[in-house]
């Protein structure tokens, strides 16, 4: 602990069960015959100490199996070697390899990762970001919720002095580097694919228009329909919450229509999984009766009951680019607060085919 008569003391990290054997900065100072401040300067690679003394102290620290407590150091210095990663639940099905990449590259750069979940809503984002700030993270890579992102929350984070990079979602008006996939193109290429197969009655289970992603995808859907001479009606776009159960419930209602859609475009592969479940529960087949397209190309998309046609977003490239920008800022470099938009790719599998009526003539 920091405070009281022991204020400033950095206790060593230790393995469970070996608390009494932990080596402290004071232990190293006694062994080296120097003061505590000199030890700290050596361990923190400060320039105001001779190279010979620094090397000697570091050698003693290794011999005494000293393990620095980075949290304690952050309390002294006002910042840490930790980088916070705030993710929303919608990315967890695809996040393992992404989080692993971020953690690995941060480790190589001598940073640690602190992961926090937002719960997928603005209030959760604020709590998650406040928790990261409380842990004195030096920087944050944030994946905001898809339905809404409050710029004020992220501006407060920037104002606190934390370096921030946003990925996968765009927080409009925020003066911070952002790396996102092309949401407009994601919806447009998926819709164009369905139209090319002959579908005219297409329904989009959409991200709400309260977010940048929602508006861009609806714009892409609308443009693809209009360019094909197809009319977008009020029933063509149904804003849907994230979750398999919401895709299933929306599809149950669609199948009650006098002329149900021949194709459904889902906002996310998880939502598409719910669509597939509802279609089969009603005695229909995919793609014979209804074609389905998802978004995200998550790990299970190709092993669903019907392998899913979907749009792949370059989440790994987003993570790499975000890391490059954040590490540059942490090193003191200036990074322009621009929005970098990466391309997306349609992945065709077995969930789409020409509509049955057109096939029968």
| Main sheet makeup | 6 strands, parallel
Using the CA coordinates, give the radius of gyration: 26 Å
Average pLDDT value?
A: 84
Class by alpha and beta content: alpha/beta
Number of helices: 13
Shape: elongated
Residues in helices, as a percent range = 40-55%
How would you explain this protein's 3D organization?
This protein has 361 residues and is of the alpha/beta class. The protein is built from 13 helices and twelve strands. A six-stranded parallel sheet has the order 2-1-3-4-5-11, with helices on both faces. A four-stranded parallel sheet has the order 7-6-8-9. It is elongated, with a radius of gyration of 26 Å. Mean pLDDT is 84; it is low at 1-20 and 74-78.
Could you give a short description of this structure?
With 361 residues, the chain is an alpha/beta fold.
Provide the fold topology.
Elements: H1 25-32, H2 36-43, H3 51-63, H4 70-77, E1 82-87, H5 92-108, E2 112-117, H6 122-134, E3 139-142, H7 151-159, E4 163-167, E5 178-181, H8 183-196, E6 202-206, H9 212-227, E7 237-239, H10 244-254, E8 263-266, H11 269-281, E9 291-293, E10 310-312, H12 315-330, E11 339-342, E12 345-347, H13 356-360
Parallel strand pairs: 1-2, 1-3, 3-4, 4-5, 5-11, 6-7, 6-8, 8-9
Antiparallel strand pairs: 10-12
What descriptors fit this protein?
alpha/beta; 6-stranded parallel beta sheet; 361 residues; 42% helix; 12 strands; 4-stranded parallel beta sheet
